[in-house]
Amino acid sequence: EPEVTQTPSHQVTQMGQEVILRCVPISNHLYFYWYRQILGQKVEFLVSFYNNEISEKSEIFDDQFSVERPDGSNFTLKIRSTKLEDSAMYFCASSDPTANYGYTFGSGTRLTVV
Amino acid sequence: RKEVEQDPGPFNVPEGATVAFNCTYSNSASQSFFWYRQDCRKEPKLLMSVYSSGNEDGRFTAQLNRASQYISLLIRDSKLSDSATYLCVVSFPGNTPLVFGKGTRLSVIA
User: Would you give the end-to-end CA distance of chain B in angstroms?
Assistant: First the structure.
């Protein structure tokens, strides 16, 4: 079964450092997403990406965040200057709009900012 | 506003018990409804979509009441492996992001 893969599985970084979280969506999917989940909290939408541009973003996705699809397979989330409150699980997802329902989540990257 | 509310639990039930979870959503424009399962520190995984007529998948039954903006999940004959957090999720017309509830934690005890 096709999978969304994310790397690394765990990233520890110092406050103020830049991090890049990587995702490889399912190859024939057209929509890509980043969600995050702070420990003990709900899964929250960050950004969606379609046709090489952001299609929607939440209030959380401020100027510190950016996304990129640098080649035909990778989809990255960059946090420019991490804060302690950025510590969370970050989930990438992709979807196939031609299917009834086609959301697939990756296994997540646990980001710890110290 | 797009809010999804769930009883956080935890629900502690013995093996074989029947347990029901409820969920309410605030936005009447919500179009699609799902129950996801999330194990500790893992990604959400789709358990089942919820249809207006109600639907069943083995031991799991989902119901939707659009008038009351209410969704339910019933698990019959609980297994130890059902222990997880159950997330109520809604989406809106178009390819819009999913909106998650905070989840209800279930522990099935031997």
Answer: 41
Model pLDDT for residues B36-86, shown as the tens digit of each residue: 999 998 999 999 999 888 899 999 999 999 999 999 999 999 999 999 999
How many Å is the maximal CA-CA distance in chain A?
42
Q: Which of B4, B37, B40, B43 to mutate to test the interface with A (most CBs of A within 10 A)?
A: B43
Q: Which residues of A touch B (CB under 8 A)?
A: 31, 33, 35, 41-45, 48, 50, 55-56, 58, 89, 91, 95, 97, 100-101, 103, 105-108, 110
- The CA–CA distances, whole Å, from A38 to A60, A68, B39 equal 12, 23, 15
* A33, A42, A110 ranked by CB distance to B97: nearest: A33
**CA A42 to chain centroid:** 15
| CA atoms of A106 and B95, how far apart (whole Å) | 19
Low-confidence ranges of chain A (pLDDT < 50): none
Smallest CA–CA distance, residue B44 to chain A, in Å, is 7
Q: List pLDDT tens digits, range B82-93.
A: 999 999 999 888
A67 touches A91 (CB < 8 A): no
Instruction: Give B-chain residues touching A91 at CB under 8 angstroms.
Output: 43-44
